[in-house]
UniProtKB/TrEMBL annotation:
HAMAP family: Deacylase_Dtd. It is an enzyme of class 3 (hydrolase). This is D-aminoacyl-tRNA deacylase. Belongs to the DTD family. An aminoacyl-tRNA editing enzyme that deacylates mischarged D-aminoacyl-tRNAs. Also deacylates mischarged glycyl-tRNA(Ala), protecting cells against glycine mischarging by AlaRS. Acts via tRNA-based rather than protein-based catalysis; rejects L-amino acids rather than detecting D-amino acids in the active site. By recycling D-aminoacyl-tRNA to D-amino acids and free tRNA molecules, this enzyme counteracts the toxicity associated with the formation of D-aminoacyl-tRNA entities in vivo and helps enforce protein L-homochirality. It comes from the Bacteria. It comes from Rhodoferax ferrireducens. One of its GO terms (cellular component) is cytoplasm.
Length: 152
């Protein structure tokens, strides 16, 4: 499983001009299921997303996680967006290949699994729509952008 985490001041996802998910300060996560992913891999990815210390403390050091974003116990928002193109293979030719990405039915299953687990573990979770043509708007904070990959 692959993810691109972006620390944001705010973010939203629109489909057909309608906002379907929005957060204030927190993480926008572009998430890609890969062939062979498992529930254990998804669980590790979610745990890393929630606990990664990439939010600033009073001294400006990255010491707080999404779960304790401001150091006072207030959690930040988590906006999950499916993005199979993270698995792009650009090593040959000029057209990327996506064979490493999970097939659509498997990708949807793992995205929905992570989304459900996130909603059980975190108070502020929003999402895009799997497979939809989405417009993602964000105000990057920092910018802080971190790639993650979890495998067996």
């Amino acid at each position: 499983m692959m993810a691109l985490l972006q620390r944001v001041r705010c973010a939203r996802v629109e489909v057909a001009g309608q906002v379907i998910g929005a957060i204030d300060a927190g993480l926008l996560v572009l998430l890609c299921a890969e062939r062979g992913d498992t529930a254990a891999i998804c669980d590790k990815m979610l745990a890393k997303m929630l606990k990664l210390r990439i939010f600033s403390d009073a001294a400006g050091k990255m010491n707080h996680s999404l779960q304790d974003m401001d150091g006072a116990g207030r959690a930040g928002g988590l906006l999950l967006v499916s993005q199979f193109t993270l698995a792009a293979d650009t090593s040959g030719g000029n057209r990327p290949g996506f064979t490493a990405a999970a097939p659509p039915d498997e990708g949807r299953r793992w995205f929905d699994y992570v989304l459900e687990q996130a909603r059980q573990a975190h108070p502020v979770v929003q999402s895009g729509a799997f497979g939809a043509d989405m417009q993602v708007h964000l105000v990057n904070d920092g910018p802080v952008t971190i790639p993650l990959r979890i495998s067996a």
